[in-house]
Specification:
By secondary structure, the chain is of the alpha/beta class. Helices cover 42% and strands 20% of the residues.
Length: 104
Amino acid sequence: MKKLALLLAVIVALFAVQTGIATAGALEEIQKRGTLRVGMEPGYMPFELTSKSGKIIGFDVDMMKRAAKAMGVKLELVSTAWDGIIPALLTDKFDIIASGMTLT
């Protein structure tokens, strides 16, 4: 299970670098800060949704928890309206988007 979590963290980091989302040293910055900030629009069940208590839950949340744990950092979920999720990423409101999205 530990190997799976580490593999997931590496895949997330590589995806961010390959897509141009991450700048050089982004992983080091996240580890120095101690927090992985993840943007999501919690309205796409079962991937991410808001529970009755107001907590964001779902598959994407579980995946990001494992990635953050493998990186040795805390997880910060940033709830963002869908139409502003990419602009928020580009202005460094969070480090990565984990919300159901396609290339188009």
